[in-house]
Each structure stands twice: as structure tokens, then as C-alpha cells.
Write a structure and sequence with these properties.
Helix content is 24%, strand content 33%. The protein is of the alpha+beta class. Helix 3 crosses helix 4 and helix 3 packs parallel to helix 5.
């Protein structure tokens, strides 16, 4: 079974010691004068992964991508692709291609000529290029649009032309810088799954740069979260979401409620955190490496919280508040609950029925509760 099929079927080469990384990034640094854009990044990426670099504007993710492509020269460190050191390899000689957010299509050329351009420049015959282009357009579902020019296409179709042109020369590594950023929300969501299917079909390693957390969660086999030029956590999407390593990561990935408190009871199999904002002791039913009276933060996702009018007796973690705001999103409703301390809690509730005659409304007094395994304790 090839590596892409292994990944598609649940294998995880990044946790198997026998697997050799396809890309090795070691202590990679890029400075622009006194400013450090990428700071001693170390990262291994495996063959035929769809890996996402996720971070806010200015975190260094695009600079890292450009160093992989050969468009920027590292100030320090090493890049190895498929066993070859890239130190003295120019961009045109690397086994990579790059797809830009702008797509950079030739406006005077048809779709098929845009896709064939790189092959013809490399001396591939017109007949062979035409055959390869036809296969690629079929893969990206644009066979019927081969004769059209870019200005005759929708945004999603232009995105697929750019993808086809990037893939036609079969690079070992495709680098995508915010590839879906120009699309509207619905089309972007649809295109994400198309991108996954194309990547799996061709078995090319993808590295995608994005600032969109949902996009990274949907696309990736693994995510590398960047902040201030550093990789602060690498993991599978559910690991990044459910087990963030810091307050920054918990807050950056999705929505989260964060309480600050101090350890009031440190037992072997549970911890209690006294939190003035919640006016209660938060009970966490697993051991945490901490000391009595230590300052900690407790993070819990809005969907892990339960909202009721009645006090759910018998639960450890219950707080009382007033409904301040409600946002209806169709599939779910978002509640902002104001606690007595003034702290706002965000709670989400699935809308499973079309009508709810007893729905919670503005200014209602409510109870918010959660299981003692629902949140995570953070020390930084």
C-alpha cells in the first residue's frame, strides 16, 4: 500500500519511527534587518501529507513557504526535500511548484493553454502536452471549459485552473499560499473537499498556508500553528483543537472560554481550581502537574457547555448567569451569558428541531454546566 493510501486509511507516518520525513526543516531562520520573520523553525513533513501552516498575519508562515520554494534565502538553518539539501538549489531547479492566492493566470490564453504553458516551455511535444492537459482538466472537472479564457470563468473555476497549472509538471511538493482566500465562504467550503480529493488522487505532498482555522482543520492531515516566527504546536486537527498547549493556541483555534484561577485542591486524580470569575471551584477529573495555590487557566469550548433554565443538580461544575445576546446561525444558536462577576461566557446549542416553543430567550436566568472532563488546564 502506497503512503497516500496509508494516510487516507488512517496510518500516521509521523508517529512511526521507521518512516523517514520527506521534508526536513532544521533551525530555519529568516531575518530582514533587525526583524526576525522566521525563528529557528524545526519541522518534519511526510510524503504525501496535506500539511497546513496556520497563523495570523505577520506570523512568518508565508516567508517559511517562500524559503521552501527558493524565493527567499534563509539567514540560517537547512531545508531538505526528499533527501536533498536545498541550500544551493535555485527555485527553478527544486522539485516544487507554488500556487499563489492571485492565481496569476495569463488573461489572453485559454484554460488549456494556461495549463500547458509549463510543459511546452520544458520542450514537451504539443501532442503529449495536449494529452496531459486533457487528463488534468478532467481531474479538476474543467474539461468543458478548456477553450475559455480566465475572464469567462468563476472564481472557483479560476482557482482550479491555477491548481491544474501548478500540478501539470507533477512536482514532488506543491506549496499553496492562501489558495482559497479569494473565494466566498460557501464556494471555499466546497472547494476544500475538491482540493483534498485532487491531492489524494495525485499523491503529491501539499503544504498550505492559511489564516483560516476552519480551512486548516478541514484540509490537513496535520497543522503547524505559527506565532511570531515560531512553530508553537504541531498536531492533527483534533489534537490542536482539543489539546492546545497554550492559551494563545486555545484562543486562536476556534472559540473558547478561558477562566483564570488558582489551585485549591491538588489530588492524585483530580484538581480543583478556585475561580472568582465563575464564583465557584472548577473540578477537573484528571491529574495536573501543579502545586497548591498555583495560578492556572481553564479553557473550555462553547459546544462543551450545557445551558438550562433549571439547576442541574448533582454536577460539579455549574455557574449561573443571564442571557445577554443570542445569535441564530441556522444549525446552531450562540448564546452570550453574563455571569455575576461580569464575565461573558459563549455557549453554542444545536438546533435539532424546527420549532422550540420553550426556547431560551434574552434576559432569561440560566444555568451553565459542564462535565469534569470537558475542559483543559493550561499553565501558560
Amino acid at each position: 500500500m502506497d503512503s497516500q493510501k496509508k494516510i487516507a486509511n488512517g496510518a500516521k507516518p509521523w508517529i512511526e519511527q521507521s518512516e523517514k520525513p520527506f521534508i526536513r526543516i532544521s533551525n530555519l531562520t529568516k531575518k530582514f534587518g533587525d526583524f526576525t520573520a522566521v525563528d529557528r523553525v524545526c519541522l518534519d513533513i511526510y510524503r504525501e501529507e496535506l500539511f497546513c501552516l496556520l497563523g495570523g498575519s505577520g506570523c512568518g508562515k508565508s516567508t517559511l513557504l517562500r524559503m521552501l520554494a527558493g524565493f527567499e534565502t534563509p539567514s540560517d538553518g537547512h531545508i531538505e526535500i526528499d533527501g536533498q539539501d536545498m541550500a544551493n538549489v535555485p527555485a527553478f531547479a527544486r522539485p516544487t511548484n507554488m500556487m499563489f492566492q492571485s492565481y496569476a493566470l495569463f488573461p489572453h490564453m485559454s484554460v488549456e493553454k494556461n495549463v500547458a504553458y509549463g510543459l511546452l516551455r520544458d520542450g514537451v511535444s504539443k501532442s503529449e502536452a495536449a494529452e496531459q492537459v486533457a487528463d488534468m482538466l478532467k481531474l479538476v472537472q474543467l474539461s468543458d471549459f478548456a477553450k475559455r479564457r480566465p475572464d469567462q470563468l468563476s472564481g472557483g473555476q479560476r482557482q482550479r485552473v491555477a491548481l491544474a497549472r501548478s500540478l501539470i509538471k507533477r512536482p514532488k511538493l506543491l506549496l499553496l499560499d492562501e489558495p482559497l482566500g479569494a473565494l466566498d465562504k460557501k464556494l471555499r467550503e466546497e472547494t476544500q473537499f475538491e482540493l483534498i480529493n485532487i491531492q489524494e488522487s495525485l499523491g503529491v505532498t501539499f503544504i498550505v498556508v492559511t489564516h483560516d482555522q476552519e480551512e486548516a482543520m478541514t484540509l490537513s492531515t496535520r497543522i503547524g500553528v505559527m506565532d511570531q516566527g515560531e512553530i508553537v504546536q504541531v498536531g492533527e486537527p483534533h489534537e490542536i483543537y482539543e489539546f492546545p498547549l497554550s492559551i494563545f493556541i486555545a484562543d486562536f483555534i476556534g472559540s473558547v472560554n478561558i477562566f483564570m484561577g488558582r489551585v485549591s485542591d491538588d489530588a492524585t486524580n483530580y484538581v480543583r481550581i478556585h475561580c472568582r470569575e465563575a464564583d465557584c471551584d472548577i473540578h477537573v477529573s484528571h491529574g495536573v502537574s501543579c502545586t497548591q495555590n498555583q495560578k492556572l487557566w481553564f479553557a473550555i469550548r462553547p459546544e462543551k457547555l450545557t445551558i438550562t433554565r433549571e439547576n442541574p443538580r448533582g454536577k460539579y461544575n455549574v455557574v449561573k448567569g443571564i442571557v445577554d445576546e443570542i445569535a441564530y446561525r441556522g444549525n446552531l444558536s450562540i448564546f452570550r451569558i453574563k455571569l455575576a462577576s461580569g464575565k461573558m461566557l459563549r455557549v453554542t446549542k444545536s438546533n435539532r428541531s424546527r420549532r422550540d416553543e420553550d426556547a431560551i430567550s434574552w434576559d432569561d436566568n440560566v444555568y451553565i454546566s459542564w462535565d469534569d472532563t470537558a475542559g483543559i488546564v493550561l499553565v501558560q
